[in-house]
Amino acid sequence: MAPVKKGILERLNAGEVVIGDGGFVFALEKRGYVKAGPWTPEAAAEYPEAVRQLHREFLRAGANVMQTFTFYASDDKLENRGNKLTFTGAQINEAACDLAREVANEGDALVAGGVSQTPSYLSCKSETDVKAIFKKQLDVFIKKDVDFLIAEYFEHVEEAVWAVEVLKETGKPVAASLCIGPDGDMHGISPAECAVRLVKAGAQIVGINCHFDPMTCVKAVKMMKEGVEKAGLKAHYMVQPLAFHTPDCNCQGFIDLPEFPFGLEPRILSRWDMHKYAREAYNAGIHFIGGCCGFEPYHIRAVAEELAPERGFLPAASEKHGNWGAGLEMHTKPWVRARARRDYWENLKPASGRPQCPSMAVPDGWGVTKGHADLMQQREATSQDQLKQLFDRSKTH
Predict the structure, then answer these.
(1) pLDDT tens, 24-74?
(2) Rounded Cα distance, 270 and 276, in Å
(3) DSSP-assigned letter for residue 5
(4) What is the spatial order of strands in the sheet that 174-178 belongs to?
(5) Backbone dihedral angles phi then psi of residue 220, each to the nearest 5 degrees
(6) Residues 71-102 pLDDT 10s
(7) To the nearest 10°, the Cα dihedral for 304, 309, 310, 316?
(8) Where in the chain is the domain with CATH 3.20.20.330?
(9) Which residues contact 177 (CB under 8 A, 6 or more apart)?
(10) In this structure, what is the dihedral angle of CA atoms 252, 291, 81, 165, given to the nearest 10 degrees?
(11) What confidence tens digit (pLDDT) does each residue in 257-312 have?
(12) Domain 8-321+366-392's class?
């Protein structure tokens, strides 16, 4: 009989480092299993072998949380703007839970069931309507007995609070992660106040995921931690940022960058950047450290390698990776062998190889959020007339 695994709160209460996985949506889009635009996770049912393999790669890289590939798997999102699928939301969510559990059982990993923001909220549906959407997803997570729950990728703390209130009814541990930066949510509520509201709603773990680069996200979580402590509350903290540099982003994050989503590759963080991120997060008191869009298994391996002294072990994938480039000692070329040292990679300033390109971009700034007519969603496909209006408007921004 397999030993009983320690739960997420048991691990965090003991001061352990918990490493999350990476960005399934972006990783699987690049591999040909997810469509950019809707970003929905039907691959869990359509191409389970692809999802299973990615879970395994993140597990081998050092992750000990397998998050169900249920991002944007609410029925209203699956049916939004003409998206037509052959699988129901329940079928996708069940398949995702099974895959995450199968791989988690291959190591000392936990399964986290995740819900995310909904088109219904953006379209100003009622609290009751939005909570019913979360409840429908939650029924699957209860049936599949996930280890804990995450409300992730919320731009508005109000909707995240509604999600937490639904999730906490299960009695399972609840984490809540907003896709905001230091400027706060899309209604201008500060990270500190957001965190306080989430903890009061019942979240035991709070933090930031997506939309911004690692150091920006760590900064926002620090603000959350300060707010929670000032309010006399207690929580654990998590961070799962982008693997893209975003120094030029506004409050909306990387989706406002002109390169989003098909031209972001020049912004990708190196594995050595990830070492710095992992250390910065840990030193800030964040013990649940993972990644979101852009993170590949080698990024998570770098996080696990940086925090190996605290964890007491290296990930399995390190058997194919010399510490700080030590494997280069075996290279045939002497000038490459000369790079087999930490100070070389820590101090490298990588060139982009694009002499005609700027180092920074000018983000779009349409300035709309929940409650604005432009963000009202629809089941019908976006019409050519609607697209023309958007094309014309984009020329003025």
Answers:
(1) 999 999 999 999 988 889 999 999 999 999 999 999 999 999 999 998 666
(2) 10
(3) P
(4) 18-19, 288-289, 236-240, 205-209, 174-178, 148-154, 110-115, 65-67
(5) -65, -40
(6) 866 667 666 555 667 888 889 999 999 999 99
(7) 40
(8) 8-321+366-392
(9) 150, 151, 152, 153, 154, 206, 207, 208, 209, 238, 240
(10) -80
(11) 999 999 999 999 999 999 999 999 999 999 999 999 999 999 999 999 999 999 99
(12) alpha beta
Higher pLDDT, 247 or 74: 247
Q: Are 320 and 305 in contact (CB under 8 A)?
A: no
Q: Is 179 annotated as a binding residue?
A: no
β-pair type (205-209, 110-115): unpaired
The amino acid that residue 272 corresponds to is W
What is the number of H-type helices and E-type strands within the chain?
Answer: 17, 8
End-to-end CA, the chain: 61
210 a known binding residue? yes
Q: How far apart are CA 66 and CA 51, in angstroms?
A: 11
Pull the structure tokens for residue 57. 């790669």
217 annotated binding-site participant: no
